[in-house]
Amino acid sequence: MDLRAIGESFIAWLEGLGIPQGWVLLINWILGALIILGIALLMALALIWLERKIAGRIQDRLGPNRVGPFGLIQPIADALKLLTKEDITPADADRITYNLAPAIAVFHVLMLFVVIPFADKVVGANINVGILYLMAFGALGTMAMLMAGWSSRNKYALLGGFRVVAQLFSYEIPIALVMMIPVLLVGSMNLNEIARGQGSLAGLGWYVWIMPAAFLLYFVAALAEGERAPFDLLEAESEIVAGYNIEYSAMKFAWFYLAFFLNTWILSAIATTLFLGGWQGPFVDQVPALGVVYFFLKTLIMFLAFAWVRATFPRLRIDQMMAFCWKVLVPMALALLLGSAIVVKMGTELNLPGVVTNGLMLVMNIVIVLVTLSLLGRYTRTLHETKNKRLFSPELPRL
Amino acid sequence: MSDVTVEKPLPFADAVPGAVIEGTETDVVVNPDKLVDFALFLRNEKGYDYLSNLAAVDYQGYKGRTPEDRFEVVYHLFNTKTGGDGMVMRVRLPEDKPELPSVILVWPGADLQEREAYDLFGIKFKGHPRLRRIFLWEGFHGHPMRKDWKEAYYEQDHKPYKSRWPEGHYAWEEDRAPWADNIIYPKGWDPATHVDPPPVLPKIHEPPVTVEHIKTDRIVVNMGPQHPSTHGVFRMIVALDGETVVGLEPELGYLHRNHEKIGERNTWLMNIPFTDRLDYLINMANNFGYVLAVEKMLGDKAKPPERAEYLRVIMAELTRVQSHLWAIGFLLNDLGAFYTPALYTIEERELILDLFEAVSGSRMMVNYMRFGGVKADVDEDWLKTARDLVYNRLPAKVDEFDRFLTENEILKERTIGVGYLSPEDAIATSMSGPMLRGSGVPYDVRKARPYSIYDRFDWDIVTNDGCDVYARYLVRLGEIRQSIRILQQALEQLPDGPIMNKKPAYVFKVPAGDAYAAVETPKGELGFYLVSDGSDNPWRYHVRSSSYINLNALEHMSIGYKVADIVTILGAIDIVLGEVDR
Amino acid sequence: MVGQALFILTAGITLLMALGVVLARNLFHAALFLVGAFFGIAVLFILLEAEFLGAAQIIIYIGAIATLIVFAIMLSRHVMGKEAGAYNRNWYFALAGVVFFFLLLGWLLIKMPFNLVTAEVPADAIAQIGQGFVGHYVVPFEVASVLLLVALIGAIMLARER
Questions:
Q1: ω into residue A230 within 30 of 0, thus cis?
Q2: What domain range is A223 assigned to?
Q3: Same-domain status, A102 and A68
C-alpha cells in the first residue's frame, strides 16, 4: 500500500464530485496541514509522557503513574490543568509582543514539520530547498524567544533573552555546516532525496556509518539548539529560573513547552533523515508504508537519546558553552565540510566506486574526531591549570 | 578592690597598656577604647586568628549589674594552628551609650555578627562599613533582644485573643484606637513628606580591566527570596555586568523568628526540641551542641554515661553522612543536573533517616539528646541495620558517587577554580566546616578541642588545597568516608550500660554563669553561648550559626564570576535558612 | 487569480509592516515590524517560485540581521522602560534624504526599461546559482567575502579589551 496513493485517490474522488481544480487543491492543502498539525500535537503529548517516564526510570523512580494506565493520560491532565490556570500578563509587559511570542514559537516548529519526509514522498511539501527551509524556520524560533524575553520586562527573562541570542546563534553555525555534508554527498537539498540516497548496502549506506563525526557533531549541536542539558542555559532553572518564559503562565506557557518538545522531536527527525537513513529499512521498497514505521522508530530512538542526556548531565556555564561552540564545534564542522567536499570531488573526478569514496569518508571522519578530541583534551587541561578563573577579585578590608 | 588583685598584675598589661580591665589569661574584660589595639595584639602576637563567636548580652536586671555595664559583647577567639580552648574577650558597655569600635578590620568575619548584634541589641559598632539591620526591616521599632523590649501578644499587658481571656481582660488595639488611627508614627516622622529610602544596592567592585570605548549598563537582579537555587527564602542582590557579577549583597531575615528570644522564654529542657528547628537537616548535631553547652554549666553531675556518649557520636556522625550526601546531591542540582544525582543521594539519606526514626520517633525533628544522656536506647535490630549500612552499603555507595561524579568533565569544568577563597581569607572571614577545610586549613573542632569522646577514635581531618567549589565537594566526600570510619569504630566499641546518668527532670536550675560550647556539625562550627542567672530558663541563649557566618565570604567569593557560578558557590556553602535566619 | 490575490495580500501586509517600521514609537516594535516586512518579502519570493531566495531571505534577514538589530536594541539604554524614542533632533534631515531617495527610485522605475523574459524556471535553479557563484562570478563573490572578513576582524579589534 502506498501512502501517496491515498492522497491521489482522494484528489480524484474530489474531482469526481465536480469541484473545480483550484478548490480541490485548496481543500487538499488545508486537510494536509490539519493532519500534520494533529499528528504533531498528539505526538507532543506522547513525547511528554515518554520523557517524564524515561527520566523517572533514570532517576530511580516511577514517573507518572496515577492518571490512566501507566500514567498515559497524565499529559492530557496537565494540559487541562494549564488550560484552567490563570492567564497572567505582567502589568508592565509589552502586550502584543508578549502574546505573540508563544504563537510564533509553536508556529515555527509546526512549519518545520512540512518538509520532513515520513516515508518515501510522504512529505507535506516536497520542496527543493528542504534543508535551507529547516534552517530558515529554525531561525524564526530564536525570534520568538527573544520577543518573549524582552516583552516580559523581567530581568531574568532579559538575561534569558541574551542567552538565547548567544547560544542559538552560535550553534546554528556548526549545525548548518554539518547539515551541508549530506547535501554534498547526495547533491540535493531535498530531504526526501537525501533519505533515498542512503538506501545502498542494506543499511550500511546510512550516513551515520559513513560519517560518524558529522553525526556526533550534529547530535551535540542539536542538544544546544534544542535547549537540552547540558546546554539548557536558556531556561536554566537553578540560575535564571526559567529564562525567557519566566512570566508565562497557563496556556501560553504550555505553548512554549509544546514548542520545546516538538523542537526536540524535529531535531531527532532531522537526524534520522540526514544520518539514519530516514524511512529506509528492510522491505521498504515493497511496502512503502513500512517507511513510516521505520522513520518513527528511528526518531524515537534519537529522542530517547536526547532524553537520556538531559537526565544525566549537569549544565555548562555560558562562557564554556560559547567556547565549546566556537573553539571546538565550528572548526570541526569546517574541517568536516572541507574534507567531505574534497572526498566527494575526488570520487567524481577519479571515477572511484562508491564503496571506496565511502571508505575514504569514514577514514577522514575518524581522523577529524581523533584530532578534535586530542585538542579538546589539551584545551580542557589548560583550563584546569588556571586555579582562579574569576576576572578580578576584590580585597577583603584589612588593617 | 581587694589586695589579691593588687598583687596579681592584670594580664597583657605590658603589651597593650590600659586595655584589660580585669580577667585572667584566657578570659579578659577589655576597655572599649583600646579594643582594636588589643584585638590586633591578640591576632598578631598571640595567634588568635579566628573569631569564632561574637555575642551581645543584655544584663539589665541581672544580679550584680548596673546600668553602667548593662551590655556585654563577648568575643570567642581561637587559634587555628594550634587548636586549644581559645580565649574569651568581653567588652562592657553602658546603657546610655552602647558603642564600641568594630573589629571588622582585624577579623573580617565579624561583619555579619556585628550587624546581628546591632539589629537585635542596638549596639553600635563604629567603623563598620554597612551597619544596617540584617534580620529585621529598617522600620522596626526597638531592638527585640533587649530585656526591656516587650514582645507583642506574649509579653504585653493586654492580650489579643478573646478565647484565652474569658474574663474579659483582652483589649484589641483596634478597639482602643479607632480605624485609621491605630497607627503610632515615630516622633518626627510625617507620612506626607516621607520619601522611601533608596533600595539597598550592592557595592559595585570595578573590574581592574576597563573597556575604554564601550560603556555597558549594569543591571541589578534580586536573586531570591523566591528562587529555586537559594536553598530557601534567601535573597542575593546581585549587580551584573553582562553575566559577570560585580556586586553582591546578601539579604536575610525572611525566616527570622528570633529563635534566641524564644529560647530565653523556654526552659532549658524545652530548648532541646527547639534546636531541631535550627538547621533542620542536621538535628542530631544541633541537639549535641546544645546539651554540651548546658552540661558544661551543670558540671560533673551531668556527665553522660559511656553508652550515651557513644550513641551521641554515632548519631552525630550519621547526621554528617546524610547531610553531606544531601549537599553533594544538591550541589549537582545547582549545576543543572536535573535531579538525578540528588535523587540517588537522597535514597541513601533516607536509610539513615529511617535509623533516626527508629530510635527517636521522627525522621528530622529528633529531640533525641538530653542533659546527661540520650532519650532512648537502641536495640539489637537497630544495631544490625546500622552495621549493615555502615559496613556494606554506605562505603559502596560513596565509592559509586565518587566514580560517577568526581571525574565528570562538566562537574570539573564548572567547579574547579570557582569560588576561590584563599586559606588566609577563609580564616579571616570565620569560615568553618568544609568551607574552611576546602581552603586547606586543617581545623576541625573535633580535633582542635576534642569534645565528647572524639579523642578515642582513629580518624583524619580531610582537607583540600583547591580553595574552590570542587575542593569543598571533595572534602565533603572525604568526610563521609571518615565518618564511616568513626562509625565503624563506635559501633564496634559500643558498651552496655545506662543511657542517662540519673532520672531525667523536667525543670531544673542551672548555676549562674556563662558557657560556650561548640560542635563540628556537617556545616561547620555550631556553637551555643549560654548565660544563666541560676533560674530555670536561660538568661541568654545565643547560637553561633555556621551557615550564617559562612555567608561572610559570599560576596568576596562571588565577585568576578558568572551568574551561574554564584549559585554553585552558594550551594557549596550549603546553607540552611532555618539556621541562617534563626 | 488566486495567485494574484495572494500577491496583493502579501504585498499589502509587507507595505503595512514597512510603514510600521517607520511610524512605531517604540524602537523594539519597529524592529519587530522590520521582521514582519522581511517575512513578507520572503513570501513574495516564494510566490514567484524563487524558493531559494525566499529561504535565504529568512535565514539572512530574519535569522541574522533582524535578530542582531533586536539584540542591539535590547542591549541599549532604557530597555526595561516603556518608551524607546524613535525620533531625534535631526529627523527633518532624514526626512529630506528619504524623500529625495524615494523620488530617485520612482524616477528610476519609470525610466528603466525592464527586459521581461517569459521562460520556464529551470529545474535546478539552486545548482545554477551555486555554479554561478563559484564559476562566472567567482571574483566578485570572493571580494565580497574578503570585505566581510575585514569588517569582522575590524569589529573584533574595536571591541577587544586592552
A1: yes
A2: 89-382
A3: no
B215 close contact with C: CB closer than 8 A: no
d(CA A368, CA A374): 10
Distance from CA of C21 to the nearest CA of A (A): 15
Query: What pTM, to 2 d.p., does this model score?
Result: 0.84
Query: How large is the ipTM?
Result: 0.81
Q: What is the pLDDT along chain A (399 residues), one digit of tens a residue?
A: 455 667 777 777 777 777 777 777 777 778 878 887 888 888 888 888 888 888 888 888 888 888 888 888 888 888 888 888 888 888 878 788 888 889 888 888 888 888 888 877 777 677 777 888 888 888 788 888 888 888 888 888 888 888 888 888 888 889 888 988 888 888 888 888 888 878 766 667 788 888 888 898 899 999 888 888 788 877 777 777 878 888 888 888 888 888 888 888 889 999 988 888 878 777 777 777 788 888 888 889 999 998 888 888 888 888 888 888 888 888 889 988 998 888 888 888 888 777 788 888 888 888 888 888 887 767 655 555 555 566 666 777 776
The length of chain A in residues reads: 399
A339 in the same domain as A285: yes
Looking at residue A342, the DSSP 8-state letter turns out to be H
With both helix axes pointing from N to C terminus, report the angle between A21-58 and A3-16 in degrees, rounded to the nearest 10.
Answer: 150
CA-based diameter of chain C, in Å? 62
Contact C159 B214 (CB under 8 A): yes
Listed residues A28, A49, A84: the one ending a domain: A84
Cα separation of B279 and B281, whole Å?
Answer: 5
Residue C161, chain B, CB below 8 Å: the answer is yes
Query: Looking at beta carbons, which residues of chain A come within 8 Å of B425?
Result: 396
The size of the B-C interface in CB pairs under 8 A is 8
Where is the domain boundary, A67, A84, A101? A84
Task: Look at residue B218 and tell me if it is in a domain.
Answer: no
Q: Is the link from the previous residue into C113 a cis peptide, with omega within 30 of 0? A: no
